[in-house]
Hints:
By secondary structure, this protein is α/β, with parallel strands linked by helices. It contains eight helices and seven strands, in the order βαβαβαβαβαβαααβ. Strands 3-2-1-4-5-6-7 form a seven-stranded parallel β-sheet, sandwiched between helices. The chain is globular, with a radius of gyration of 17 Å.
Amino acid sequence: MTDQTAGFPAQQQDPPGLTGPMKPLPDHGESSYRGSGRLDGLRALITGGDSGIGRAVAIAFAREGADVAIGYLPEEQPDAEETARWVREAGRKAVLLPGDLRQEEASRALVADAVRELGGLDVLVNNAGFQMARRESIADVTTADLDRVLKTNLYSLFWVTQAALEHLQEGASIINVSSIQAYQPSSSLLDYAATKAAINNFTVNLAAEVGERGIRVNAVAPGPIWTPLQPATQPAEKIEQFGADTPLGRAGQPAEVAPAFVFLASPSDAGYVSATVLGVTGGKPVF
């Protein structure tokens, strides 16, 4: 794991951001993750699976024996292809499904295409998300900003999940991505933080609804994780101290989050775990 105790060099990209220009490159577990067959034969759809946490989860799932469909924005094609390469190197099937999930038709089509290409669906990871921290107050939040955050983080979550539930069977798992922002919100991310608090509520309520079908619903709440979303949405000067305010004193790497998703997706490890938000925050509390 790369030592990031000294912080990151100031840098900035245009949204949604790509992995290649990042300094240093994130660690997605490419050289460190070792699978043990915990997801053998499962079929997973990961939204936002091209980079960051999504890429790390795709690599871990594949090395645990799962085939993976990856949802991503068309402009993220280079990252998506790299993620697919790692999945295929693990001997598993990778399906690339570009589309803008802010559109209902695209969200529902993503699920239909994943089911068709994978032959079914066992695990849904609702990872796609967007934030914008380059502002100082609520007065700086435009309607366009609000639309992008709410439609990416919440609307697509509903649409994708609704479509997936038509295919998920007993033993299936839905894993949503919350955030430390749901518990310790930053003023510059008030719209994003609000969506993450809503995702926690969504997770608990959906778990209650679909539990009788044998479907588990959980969430992972990451802390500050070094992904393309950070240089694409944070002021350049804030990148230098990104993650320094955690009890562990540093940002996390995507590879450090992925095992939480493997645990929650595994029927043998987490078969009695539902309606839980699992924090991976560098020591910040999620309660």
